[in-house]
Design brief:
Layout (H helix, E strand, L loop, with lengths): L29 H8 L8 E5 L6 H11 L3 E3 L9 H9 L6 E5 L11 H8 L3 E3 L5 H14 L6 H8 L6 H18 L5 H10 L6
Parallel strand pairs: 1-3, 1-4, 2-3
InterPro entries: Hda_lid (IPR055199), P-loop_NTPase (IPR027417)
Pfam families: Hda_lid
Organism: Sandarakinorhabdus fusca
Length: about 200
């Protein structure tokens, strides 16, 4: 009889929830949310949304595009071919505004088109600020929920005071805890989170 071999748990593919109801608003992003809600008040039908990695730029862009016809370039600062963005900038109007997201200011973008650079320099910008503890806690809850995970409030509260205060760190720790829970076939708890951070030398407190 062939012995049974236990297969390792495979990571699940998940899609982040990007509806308006799923977006977490706080003092660090409230101005950007209000600005994107009223493109009719913009000085021109174009805007650059700048913020840290994993700060909700793509989520806000999806919300923006769901409200009205729009041209959206996510991670516009990474585009080495600036021609599509150049033509989109010229084509944008009040009926179809242009929203670009980036982690860097336009003068540091990857393209090398002088005509595009001059247009971007004149384009209004709105920023997402670094998160506070309230927002980090809410982001952790959302990331767990996006993966179909239920964790106790004690886990979230414990993580908020131990991980780096950044969106990227919150997203990363949830992904690693998800994988650990799958591998160990048990719920995510404070002891599991502590063991994970200690093992990787990341325990801040």
């Amino acid at each position: 009889m062939t012995p049974l071999v236990e297969q390792p748990a495979l990571p699940l593919v998940y899609r982040p929830r990007l509806s308006e109801q799923d977006f977490v608003t706080s003092d660090t992003n409230r101005d950007a949310v209000a600005w994107l809600a009223r493109p009719d008040l913009w000085p021109m039908p174009r805007c650059v949304l700048i913020g840290p990695a994993a700060s909700g730029k793509s989520h806000l862009a999806a919300m923006f595009a769901a409200r009205q016809p729009a041209l959206v370039f996510d991670d516009a600062d990474l585009l080495t071919d600036g021609e599509p963005l150049f033509h989109a900038w010229n084509a944008a109007d009040r009926a179809r505004p242009l929203l670009m997201t980036a982690t860097r200011m336009p003068r540091f973008w990857a393209h090398r088109l002088p005509d595009l650079a001059s247009r971007l320099a004149a384009t209004p910008q709105v920023r997402l600020e670094d998160p506070d503890d309230v927002l980090i806690a809410a982001v952790l809850v959302k990331c767990f929920a996006d993966r179909g995970l239920r964790v106790g409030d004690d886990v979230v509260a414990w993580l908020v005071t131990r991980i780096e205060r950044s969106f990227a760190a919150a997203t990363d720790v949830v992904a690693r805890l998800d994988q650990a829970a799958l591998s160990e076939r048990r719920d995510i708890t404070v002891p599991m989170a502590r063991a994970l951070l200690e093992e990787q030398g990341e325990l801040g407190l």
